[in-house]
Amino acid sequence: MRALTDAGSGAGRARRAGRIRGTALCLAAANGIRPHLARRFALAGLAAAASWLAVPAAAGPDSGMALDARSAAAIERFEELVPARYFAEAWGYAVLPAVKRVGLGLGAAWGRGEVGEQGEVAGDARFWQITSGIQAGVSAASLIVFFRDRDAMADIECGRIEFMGQAGLAVGGVGLLKTPAYDPKVAIFAAHRFGLMSEASVSLGKLSFRPHARRERSAC
Amino acid sequence: MHAGLCTLREGGGRGRAASSELFSIVVSIRKSTRPVLLWVGALWAGLLTAGDVRGDQELSLLLDDLPDGTTGIGGALRWTGAPYAAGGDELDFVPLYLYEGRRLFIHGTSLGVHLLKDRDLEVDVVGRYRFWQLDPSGEALEGVAERSQTLDGGLAVHWRRGASELSLEWLADLLDEHGGHQLDAAYRRTFRRGRWQVSPFIGVSVLDSRLAQYYFGVDESERSAARAPYRPGRAANLRYGVNASYDLGEGFRLYANVGVSELDGRLFASPLVEETLWPTLLFGASYFFGSVYEPRARVPPRRRAEWSWRVNYGYQAEGNIVGDIDRGDFRRNVVADTRIGGVTIGKLLDEGRRFDIVGRLALFRHFERGLQEDFFSAAAYVTAIGKGYLPWSDRPAFRWGFGIGLSYAERVPIVEQIERADGSRARFQNYLEMTIDFPLPWGRRGSVLGDCFIGLTTVHRSGIFATSNLLGDVAGGSDWLTAHLECVR
């Protein structure tokens, strides 16, 4: 898998910053704010936008659309936790930087992230899960799902609901969450972030994929 | 309150063996357990060797076109307008467990074995639930004994020619309720257009004198000022109606049946009877695993011989299978602190994309620990079994299972007797099962313990909220939490 953490080209960043500055000046004029104040607002906005745009975790050699900062940070963390073969051999992946979990007998989990495929950021990912089992508490964890081949990835394009199971224990910043895969060609790894939760549950979950660009849809 | 088949003949001089628990599963198979074992045996024989039966034409489902091996579950609402003086119209839920095999069939309220099955001729051994009953709780029938539903069994022959079918069926009472027998002859023609099937039928049912006497006669003991004893003798009812089905996508099939029995004059003359027409309506739906359109190999050759065995043992739980046990409430029931042990055999019926469908037969020994005598129960059910996998591997990290079917108990478990304050109880009940298990860590593939799993099984019996005559109109149920060892072979 190629690096996907490029923040984008410098020219692109400048264009986006320019658009934000222009928009701020127009809004100020429309609201009767004096030009010098408007300029200060615009400069402040520009600074904020620049800092936001500068957040991307790592700039790689490849160009193209980049993962957002939180996804990139999650990937960096998983690179330390997950055997390298999954990154090297996966057809694609879905990374969910913060999957929130809450449960008391019955529970739920949800999160958003991005999908990468063959070295490109292919789209957005959404995840939800309804859980039932021995569980109590709240927690958050990053999740990464590796798809071994194109077929395995097609399932999330179809938005199928899958039966899953998970077990975990979380106390503050220390924790462990294990989630077996719903398909032999899928691998799921979780990295605990924070929370206070004990869980051994089964669930119905759905990982869905919204592609950025028009693409040929898999037969579902 | 009418009693269903299950509330009848409790006890009855059956020999009991006080035995140590698991050991007695094996050694105490006595005369009293024969009905349970025969029931299990018949079903299992069919599953191992693995059509359609017309008898109760009004309730018959249009399943002729399904490929062998089709498995489905569903439910139907059945309404019947009773002909009796006291009324007794019923709206009833009928659980539909459907299996269409080369040898075995289970069609909701009927099951059996195809002795011969080809395109034109079919000969079956059939067992069918008889829904007929008389609830004498009304004033008009005061002093009249209750007439119960029962299970009939017999032989059926179907001769097909194109869209037409002639059926001949002989049924006798298997549970000694009416003690008689019935001969049916019917003709039906099935029209198929797209997703629709429509099948009008007409037939005649000949009831022998004992059957007619049980449901329509008046015994000497039932005599009153307004009711003289009456013996109808042999009678023949005319039956006609239309059955229809509609395929909603590949998996769902909807059913709508309407039928009428016109009572013989001898039956209508009974003091118990007020109406000459006996109408029945049925609306239902079922879901089939696989496609109802395309026959396909449901089990790939490499898994065709796959079967499994399981032993489990556990205790009566305080909570319910759904909402309590599944959320970690593992408390023991202190009022009925009983135990259960069982042996289950399973056969793979369908390899699914995410889960397999396995047909299972279970024999349980109930250890009532002095609250009443120990007894056996049997369950026939289908289970969906799915797996969670290790990363990029076909090795399971865990399995989950959900089973649904029917359970028949030699006696009503003590917990069901205690919890049903209204006195309703039934031996024949709906069966649910939930399992979760994990592979034995030292069970390598190919070894004795290869493909073996340990885990928890929750065993549940209930009457589906008192909605079903078939299940004795009882509410509530019983739940056992058990530990199990299962090996797939």
What does this protein look like?
The complex is a heterodimer of chains A (220) and B (489). Chain A has 220 residues and is α+β, with helices and mostly antiparallel strands. Chain A has two domains: 10-54; 69-211, no CATH class. Chain A is built from five helices and five strands, in the order H-H-H-H-E-E-H-E-E-E. Chain A has a five-stranded antiparallel beta sheet. In chain A, helix 1 (10-30) packs antiparallel against helix 2. In chain B, strand 11 and strand 12 (252-262) form a beta hairpin. Mean pLDDT of chain B is 82; it is low at 1-55. In chain B, the strands form two sheets. Chain B has a twelve-stranded antiparallel barrel with strand order 1-2-3-4-5-6-7-8-10-11-12-13. Chain B has an eight-stranded antiparallel β-barrel with strand order 14-15-16-17-18-19-20-21. Helix content of chain B is 8%, strand content 46%. The chains are: A alpha+beta (220), B mainly beta (489).
Annotation field: number of helices of chain A = 5
Major sheet summary line of chain B:
12 strands, antiparallel, barrel
CATH homology group of the largest domain in chain B: monomeric porin ompg
Poorly predicted runs of 5 or more residues of chain B: 1-55
Q: Whole-number radius of gyration of chain B?
A: 23 Å
CATH architecture of the largest domain in chain B: Beta Barrel
What is the CATH top level name of the largest domain in chain B? Mainly Beta
- Count of separate DSSP helical elements of chain B: 5
Query: What does the radius of gyration of chain A come to?
Result: 20 Å
Q: What are the defining features of this structure?
A:
heterodimer, A: 220 residues, alpha+beta, 2 domains, 5-stranded antiparallel sheet, 5 helices, 5 strands, disordered N terminus, B: 489 residues, mainly beta, Porin, 12-stranded antiparallel barrel, 8-stranded antiparallel β-barrel
SSE diagram, text form:
The complex is a heterodimer of chains A (about 220) and B (about 500).
Chain A: H1 10-30, H2 35-54, H3 69-81, H4 84-89, E1 92-117, E2 120-147, H5 150-158, E3 161-172, E4 174-178, E5 186-211
Antiparallel strand pairs in A: 1-2, 2-5, 3-4, 3-5
Helix pairs in contact in A: 1-2
Chain B: H1 21-27, H2 34-49, E1 70-80, E2 90-100, E3 104-107, E4 110-117, E5 121-130, E6 150-161, E7 164-173, E8 181-189, E9 191-193, E10 196-207, H3 209-216, E11 235-248, E12 252-262, H4 265-268, E13 277-289, E14 307-316, E15 339-350, E16 355-367, E17 375-389, E18 396-409, H5 414-419, E19 428-439, E20 452-462, E21 477-488
Antiparallel strand pairs in B: 1-2, 1-13, 2-3, 3-4, 4-5, 5-6, 6-7, 7-8, 8-10, 9-10, 10-11, 11-12, 12-13, 14-15, 14-21, 15-16, 16-17, 17-18, 18-19, 19-20, 20-21
